Amino acid sequence: MVRSNDWGRRGEEEPCEPRYLIVRSDKAGLLDLVRFAVCGREAHGFLESREGEEGLGPIRDDHRWVIVVSVVIRRLLAFFRKPMEWTGMLVEFLLNLLSLNGGFSGLFINLFKGKLVVPHRGSDSFISAIGHLDRRMELYKFDSFLPFNELNRETGGSFQNGSRDLMDLCMMASKLAYENANVVRNVIVHHWKMHFVEFYNCWNDYQKERSTQVFILCDKPKDAGLVLISFRGTEPFDADNWSTDFDYSWYEIPKLGKVHMGFLEALGLGSRTQVSTFQLHLQGRGHSVDSKSSNQSAHPSGTCISSFLEKSKLMDTDELIAYYAVKNKLSSLLDEHKRAKFIVTGHSLGGALAILFPAVLLFHGEDGLMKRLLGVYTFGQPRVGDRQLKRFMEAHLCHPEQKYFRMVYCNDLVPRLPYDDKTFLYKHFGMCMYYDSFYVEQNMDEEPNRNYFGLRYLLPEHLNAVWELIRSLIMGSIYGPYYKETWCSIWLRLLGLMMPGVSAHSPTNYINSIILGQRMARMSPI
């Protein structure tokens, strides 16, 4: 068997068996969980693994309860999947109905006059639940008081990594990624005065639905200096999205390390229903599969892979694969705009996809593309891999210059997922730009309370949630109308009194932190 660090000879030898762990929550009954918690892996049937010839081996007691909690949460999410979906559809319809008719009073007046405006999902006026949490669409005009693309021209086409205008653009793009294609196009063209390139709704073969949303823009249509890629994050009423965040399953990529399986699936790089598909897509330097060709005969499972690829072709069907769709479009844009650099960004789950996209580019040996990378900006991003991935990414994105900016607001739950301790699998990497509830920024290796559920943080988290509720009621009075929080945001703050980590995940917190942040130990712009 070829060792994972012998990748240079791998193309000339028989492929090694992949290493992975799949936590199948749908196969875990109550008795299975109890037996697993007490006896370990020998007493269960819901973990599928291939950890070399020795198997998983014994699982430590403190690791078992993490897996049990993960399974329980995912089972609950699966049970409430449809109710959450229906609730989300109803909530978004009512929010748009009220918004389009001018609130409750306008709704009754229009209804009485027979002029009721009915929202249509997918139109350029239908805003998502995230969009109603924070209705801001314009980019903040900082000291220059110029639109972002005009500021770029004024500075000779240069973009400064870590600058507030660039961070604001990335966070607003991350928030915009939750909207439908027509809203995205309208905001980019008419509000930001930039060039809309493409919007993709991509296929997740494990979830059997188009659940990965991403758009691309340029700062201007000709001779662009910036290409921005924004992945959609965790939708509040999407049980599958939340289940992915809580999933503990991983797949080991030689040379990269162990990577969260759910995030690889969201990029379209395989499916746990056919684990061999990961091996097909993750073949290393010079061996990435695209929509035009594949070396199926070199793989022992050619038949099932052929079936998988047949469903995955980019141009012949509607079932786009996010990684290849974005990579191909990015390559053509950088060929067209010779001086352009690109940024990848995302909030929540979108942040995980944003950092994994360049990781796979590096693994596939896309050196030409990676030389044009300006930076990766993530907001409330969950952990994506192990220590080996941490070392690999820090070597490429943090040295000799900082290209990875990971922002965490206060008690946000999502960056503390999946669980981590000194010996556990999932690790953050790079520098954390941490903002407390007073918008004071500190640069650190890891956010405080890195696993969220520590008992000693319980009281401070809830007291802080009370302060955030009070703050939401006075933001407009203190800082001006741009910061006035919507009623949806205030209702989320009320929910935060019970679950502080959920309300702290709101994009509102990240936008305000970037604009109002007091920068302590601030990194100098590159």
From TrEMBL:
One of its GO terms (molecular function) is triacylglycerol lipase activity. The keyword Membrane applies. The chain crosses the membrane at residues 93-112. Keywords: Membrane, Transmembrane, Transmembrane helix. It holds the Pfam family Lipase_3. Residues 229-420 form the Fungal lipase-type domain. The lineage of its organism: Eukaryota, Viridiplantae, Streptophyta, Embryophyta, Tracheophyta. SUPFAM superfamilies: alpha/beta-Hydrolases (SSF53474). It comes from Elaeis guineensis var. tenera (Oil palm). The gene is LOC105041958. This is Uncharacterized protein LOC105041958. Signal peptide: none annotated. InterPro entries: AB_hydrolase_fold, Fungal_lipase-type, OBL-like. GO terms for biological process: lipid metabolic process.
